[in-house]
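Researcher: Checking consistency across runs. Here is TetR/AcrR family transcriptional regulator again:
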Amino acid sequence: MRVSRTQAAENRETVINVASRLFRERGFDGIGLKDLMKGAGLTQGAFYKQFESKDDLAAQASRRAMESATHRWSVATAASPEDPLGAVTAFYLSMDHSGEKRDGCPIVALGSDAARQGPDVKASFEAGIKEHLEILGRFIAEANAEEAGGKAMAILSTMVGAVLLSRVVNDPDLAQAFLDAAADQVRETVAI
């Protein structure tokens, strides 16, 4: 049975969305095409009609994951427009966010995997990271315009590292301590 162009486009978007979440949960090599397509409710044969390769899908899914992360930052800032950096920090450095394997930060979930992928996956991450840095730079410039770019890099690095460390320890108190220490460091970085 032939699928309409509209349905094919919807199927492609579904596969990208599912892959974005499953890659974050299991890693790029942690799920095969058969299980990935099953998660999208499609057959494996449909995959090759929509993507050149699993690497092509990984690049598309990485872009989608980074877009999703940026959107979540926007939602956090909309809830607290008087302190957008504080809102993003509070959201990002929370135990709830730390525990989100499927929907959490793709940099934390896939950063080391992405470093071993091809240029298209790296380009997707790079574009998303640059967007995060731009957003943080704007927040910092509102509070302290000097050296906003360097401070944005330090803040993003601190936040990503803290969430990563909070995920790899068993002790919930230690995990919370990493997140709290990072939040304190972000405030100090902005104040300097």
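Researcher: Does this match what you'd expect to see?
Model: One thing to look at in this run: The first helix runs from residue 5 to 26.
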